[in-house]
Amino acid sequence: MLAVVPPVSLGAVFYGRYLRNLSKQTQDALGDMTKVAEEKLSAFRTLTAFNSQCVPFCRLDLLSSRSNVFALAALPRPMEVASFSQKVDVVLNLARKEAMASGIFFGGTGLTGNLTMLCLLGYGGHLVSLGEISVGSLTSLLIYTG
Amino acid sequence: MTSGIAWASARWPTTPSIAASSPAAPSAILAAVARRRLHSGPVLRQAPPPPASPTPSSAPAAPPADPVPQPPSSSPQEKKKLASLIPTKETTSSIRKLLELARPERQTIIWAIGLLIVSSTISMSVPLTIGKLIDFFASSDSVRALLPSTRRTRALTHRALCPTQERFLGLSFPVAAAVLTSFFILGAACNAARAYLMRLSGQRIIARVRKDAYRNVLRQEVEFADKGAGDILSRLGSDTTIVGESVTNNLSDGLRALISAIVGGAPSPCARKSLSFTRLIADSCFLCSRRDGLHLDEADDGHAGRRPTRLPRRRLLRPLPA
After folding, report:
1. Which of A82, A87, A61, A52 is nearest to B219 (CA)?
2. In chain B, positions 189-248, which contact chain A (CB-CB < 8 Å)?
3. Contact predicate A83/B218, CB 8 Å
4. What is the pLDDT of residues B86-113, one digit of tens each?
5. Which domain range does residue A76 map to?
6. How many separate domains does chain A show?
7. Does A123 reside within a domain?
8. I need a surface site. Which of A96, B192, B239, B266 has the fewest CB within 10 A?
9. A41: in domain
10. Shortest Cα distance from B31 to chain A (angstroms)?
């Protein structure tokens, strides 16, 4: 039964390394994102003066009625929003990788645990039917495993 | 003026995305901004409505001779609409706001919940299977223990006394083990896909909230950003994480606990009533402890450290960059 320990721990080591790498990248990306936002917010007056923070005002006539609200989406994306969105997307891509890795890892560990228990039960049950151990010892062994 | 108000009201549907993260402080700020806009109109871009100054942008809509400052057809309805969009604690619960944020991801979340049900069903059947297996081995063991154990009598009594026990769940043991293994593999695959989909949809929600919040912040007046740049940064960075995870990860954790409570609490044929009652109590304790992540409405402005927060510390520590 101890044979499952090396592959699982090896997997855990690799997963840990991958995750450390990934979380470092994620922190960097989050830092970039915050940097962009902070830069724009601390220079908000400049941004407003150059009118680069919102929808061009000349196009507001499109929005004169409620039905034209959707025209907002069709308007060209402002430059500042686009630069921030790019950073947010970088973070999202890294998080997607991390989600994939963690899904595989946790599914794998759960599967390994279940299969170990099944093997243990098969072998222990065999021993019980041979009369070498009692049902109580088999149960306590199972509880120790789980 | 009409265009300005329509523009303002067009922006408000997305503002609860900021407010939902921690409803006490930012919603107050946003509501204040909204009310100010409601009374004075957009300040920066349009001339004030008094009759002396002709407004260049809305000149064809409202002639300067008109004594009414706002067009009477639109203003009361628009005001009411705008007032209903300002998030208040009485009208909209924060759970509803959170679900509103999760709406674009509902297909992914529904898939994830389906996978969650499959994987929890399989993982709930593990103890049952183990119990049956122990029964299977134990019954043959007890029969043998009662009788003299020569090889011949063992085989004879076994066949005579427990003819059904020779087969486990109607299958021989190797076949049953293979079936169980494939079930476990299916459950693990479902669990992995569930975790991936939940996390992915959470991250997508976070990204969308960040973009919306940033876009809305850039459309505010100058003094809004001057007043609290750090505040806004904190909302963009960490509070969005709490919102996104509370809709997805905590939801799936809670559902898992709920399923295990239902399965464990249901009177099963192999357990006595007292046993399942004990399990029900234990599970409901577990379930109650899982609900804390959704108590976002009670959390006030805790990230600045000025006031004590009622959020559990775990929820605050996780999004902080290490």
Report:
1. A52
2. 189, 191-196, 199-200, 203-204, 206-207, 210-211, 214-215, 217-219, 222, 225-226, 229, 232-233, 236-237
3. no
4. 555 545 677 788 788 888 888 999 999 9
5. 2-108
6. 1
7. no
8. B266
9. yes
10. 20
What's the complex ipTM?
0.77
Identify whether A133 is part of a domain: no
Closest CA to B204 of A89, A26, A84: A89
Whether A64 sits inside 8 A of B3 (CB atoms) is: yes
Q: What is the pLDDT of residues A97-133, one digit of tens each?
A: 999 999 999 898 889 888 888 888 888 888 887 888 8
First to last CA, chain B: 49
What is the spatial distance between Cα B70 and Cα B6, in angstroms, rounded to a whole number?
Answer: 13
Exposure string (b/e) for B284-309, b if CB count within 10 Å is 16 or more?
eeebeebeebbebbebebbbeeeeeb
Which amino acid belongs to residue B9?
A: S
Report the greatest alpha carbon distance in chain A. 89
Q: For residues B149 and B136, what is the distance between their CA atoms, to the nearest angstrom?
A: 19
Q: List per-residue pLDDT tens for chain A, 146 residues long.
A: 667 788 888 888 999 999 999 999 999 999 998 888 888 888 777 777 776 555 544 445 555 555 555 545 444 446 777 888 888 999 999 999 999 999 999 898 889 888 888 888 888 888 887 888 888 888 888 888 76
Pair of tokens at residue A96: 């997607």
DSSP B269: T
Outline where B52-172 has alpha helix (H). 75-85, 94-102, 106-146, 151-161
d(CA B298, CA B300) in angstroms, rounded, equals: 6
Nearest residue, CB atoms, A81 vs list B2, B9, B215: B215
What the block records as the tokens of A99 is 């989600």
Residue at A93: amino acid letter: N
Res. B30 pLDDT band, cuts 50 70 90: very low
Higher pLDDT, B295 or B246: B246
β-sheet bridge partners, residue B168: B171
**Backbone region of residue B305 per phi and psi (left: phi > 0; alpha: psi in -120 to 50; beta: other values):** left
User: Which residue, among B184, B204, B239, would best test binding to A if mutated, counting the most A CBs under 10 Å from its CB?
Assistant: B184
Domain annotation covers residue A32: yes
State how far the Cα of B319 lies from the Cα of B322, in Å rounded to an integer: 9
Measured at the alpha carbon of residue A40, what is the angle toward residues A36 and A43, in degrees to the nearest 5? 140
Task: Take residue A119 and report the two structure tokens written for it.
Answer: 């093997």
Handedness of CA A90, A91, A97, A99 (dihedral sign): negative
Calpha distance B157→B308 (Å, rounded):
72
Alpha-carbon span A117 to B127, nearest angstrom: 10
Q: What pTM was estimated for this model as a whole?
A: 0.61
